[in-house]
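Consider this pair:
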Amino acid sequence: MKSLGRIAVRIMVYYVLTTLVATVIGLATASVLKPGVHANFTGLASKEVSGSTDITIAQFFTNMFSSNMFVTFSESNILQTVVIAVMLGVAIMLVKNDDHREKLISGANALCSMVFSLIGMIMKASPIGIFFLMGASFGKYGTSIFTSMATLLGTYYLACILQVLLVYGLVLWFAAGISPLRFIRDSAELWVYTLSTCSSVAAIPVNMKVAREKFNVPDSISSFTVPLGSQMNYDGSVILYGCVIMFISQVCGQSVSLEMMLRVVLLSAILSTGGGGIPGSGIVKLLVMVEAFSLPTEIVGIIAAFYRLFDMGTTTNNCLGDLAGTVLVSKLEEKRAKKLAASQDNN
């Protein structure tokens, strides 16, 4: 239980800090490249974006707890599932009868093995589905995107690359001795999958598999940090918020003050940890951001028409952030265990 509390604090601090840094990177990249100055919307079709939601910190915390765990499972609410799993795990550890406790743990391990066996069957067939998803995307958009929204799309992907190299890469390099290039190479299975599927939830087993096989992360850590990250760590999303705010401001010829940038950072952090389970929440939250700063929302409709291409980067960055945080926490736990062992040997 002490280990769980320590891991939870470390991973949540990591998620909050990287989210704030990601927003700054999005704003800075768009400020330097100025994609809105070169934007050309001729011939681009807009898509209607409707719906809004009250996304608050209070709502995020109250929605963490389920009133019916079977409804939680049927609705695939990952955050509530994580909370339920933690509470059940703590309850099992507190069972006083040793025989009963061991039976519960053995049953949970057997069920876990069955679930991963099922996931393995699905993963063997997934390359076929990924191939057709990529074909459908290319057939729908063709090369038109490279002559229309290329400025914003290019700026956004550059910001995502900077986040991966300068934040995830350097953090792992200094804290765990893992170079940025090694991190990108060893996580290839994950980012190829997320680029194709655009689903953080579907990538959870792949993320855990990469963490275990490539970075030697115990399942006891990744099974907590990865699902949690899929619900509260949205670095790719906040990078997009920053890029779009700057982009629309440049298109309209509106200057962006330092105060406005700070508001973008804070609001992005709040939005990134709320709205889980909302259909199309990515584009809805983007609309909320633009409306919050009284900017024209018509351009969000154009972005929505091409959102799949942005979502590829958003999901990939989100999941790589989850993986980097998981590896970081695992290495910190490993170093702590070695120090404790060395201390005991000296005594």
Remarks:
- The radius of gyration is 21 Å.
